Amino acid sequence: MQTQQRPVLAQQQQLKLSPRMLQSIRLLALPLQELTEQINQELEENPALELLTGTEEVSLDVMEASIDTTYDSDDNLREAEYSDDAFGFNTEGNDRNTIIEQTIAIEESLQEHLISQLGLLPLSEEERSIAERIIQNTDENGFHILPPSELCADSDSETLRRILSLLQRLDPPGTCTSDYRESLMVQAEIASNAPPKTLEVLSQHFENLQSRNHGTIKKALGLDDRQLGRIMEFIKTLNPYPGRAFSKARPRYIVPELAMWLEDGEIKVRLNDATIPKLGINRLYSELASRSSRGEAEKFAREKVEHARFFIDSIKKRNATLLKTAFAIAEAQKDFFINGPKALKPLSLKDVAEKINVHEGTVSRVVNGKYVQTDWGTFELRRFFTNAINRENGENTSKEGVKAEIAQIIGELESKGQKISDRIISEILAQRGISVARRTVAKYRSELGK
Predict the structure, then answer these.
(1) Model-level pTM?
(2) Which of 107, 177, 196, 335 is geometrically suited to a Cys-Cys bond with 343, CB 3.0 to 4.6 A?
């Protein structure tokens, strides 16, 4: 047995990353506010790192200047233009330089709560990485934003199934699922007090349950009124949106990390790094580290300066990767900036990853928790990734595009005082060349709150 375990252990050891690389990866995933908090913490812990006030003489060459970056449809991904101010905007002649500080409340993170429990699970380092990717891919309800099979396309289906099963049983149970139906099924499956045939009702007769077709359910499953009543009462105790429990905890406020807009037919992208503290190297530590002597003081200074340089460089790389990702998204979703959310096209993490030549996991970390200001409102960056739905004419539209169509249809029906139902909406969508099942319409209406 020991001989068989050695290759596995060796493989796990190879997957271990250095503390610095882990820090770099973590910085990549941090939203703007949390990045600022991390910088402040680093300033407290590393005396070689200092905050620049604008009059400091000592700074690093790696402190790339302000990024006034534009996407040009003719030049594809154009090089960033840099100003002379460290991490500040070139403010001459551009009223778009100040990104509007919209107060978006980000609640206590469901993702943080789930990740904190991963240490209790029997996962290898590679499996833990997959688990974290899945967790970061959940929305405020606790549901997948992208299908796990697409998010983790490089993982085998059996490993993915096992990890999902473990994640769905964390607190709160029923997260990391596709929708509220699957969430209820998971909760019912692990509950010790679930009445017999509860799972059958949820898996086989969910639409009948929603439509109150109790007779159909009883006949199909051989239930009497009392048995079905117990099942329905039990289902009422479950939470169809387990992630929402975290939406009422301590809120924190952020500003959009990016701005994207259309100007003279060109998509422009701006990184809002104006609120990121400007960092440099302490003069005393820099001079001490450059000495040729090998004393303890010089050794300490060199270690601290080296760490400070790596930290600053990691922030620079984070911002550059975020910009590259935003460029690729803007290029793929240009119609959105003209016609709004209904014009979103199918886009996957893999599409963007291949465009900018990075791993899908990198793109997933970059877009997580990052917000972008547009003329159509402020959106989380990962909203621009959406699945394909086939049209009758052979073209594809996106999930968000279908949801926008549904919202428009509901508005039209309401204005005319006409009846609104999933069936009617599905039929109107079909007339527009979009084939969507009634069950899917119901799901999208629930997500829209309509």
Answers:
(1) 0.49
(2) 335
Same domain, 337 and 264: yes
Handedness of CA 280, 36, 382, 159 (dihedral sign): positive
CB 400 within 8 A of CB 386: yes
Q: How many domains does the chain have?
A: 2
Q: Give me the half-sphere count of Cα atoms (radius 13 Å) on the Cβ side of residue 301.
A: 18
DSSP assignment of 113-145, as one string? Answer: HHHTTGGGS---HHHHHHHHHHHHTB-TTSBBS
Residues 329 and 394 in one domain: no
C-beta neighbour count of 135 within 10 angstroms: 23
Same domain, 340 and 391: no
Return the closest-CA partner of residue 38 out of 58, 24, 17.
Answer: 24
- Angle at Cα 237 formed by Cα 234 and Cα 242, nearest 5°? 130
15: Cβ contacts below 8 Å, ≥ 6 apart: 124, 125, 126, 129
pLDDT digits (tens, 9 = 90+) for 404-435: 778 878 877 777 777 788 888 888 887 776 77
Rounded Cα distance between 174 and 277, Å, is 39
Q: Specify which residues 377 forms β-bridges with.
A: 374
Give Cα separations from 6 to 11, 15, 127, 299 (angstroms).
8, 14, 18, 38
Does residue 333 lie in a domain region?
yes
Q: How many helices (H) and strands (E) does the chain have?
A: 20, 12
Q: Within 13 Å, how many C-alpha atoms sit on residue 225's CB side?
A: 0
**DSSP state for residue 194 in the 8-state scheme:** P
In this predicted structure, the answer to whether residue 100 has a pLDDT above a threshold of 50 is no
Looking at the structure, do residues 91 and 31 belong to the same domain, yes or no? yes
* Residue 346, CA distances (Å) to 33, 143, 388, 395 in order: 30, 19, 5, 11
pLDDT tops 50 at residue 142: yes
Q: For residue 267, tell me if it sits in a domain.
A: yes
Question: Which residue carries 């609120």 as its tokens?
Answer: 275
Rounded CA-CA distance 136/114 in Å is 9
73 is a domain residue: yes
Buried b (16+ CB within 10 A) or exposed e, 292-312: eeeeeeeeebbebbebbbebb
- 85 and 30, same domain (yes or no): yes
Structural domain that includes position 286: 20-99+257-344
Asked if pLDDT for residue 118 goes beyond 70, the answer is yes
Asked, for residue 352, whether it belongs to a domain, the answer is no
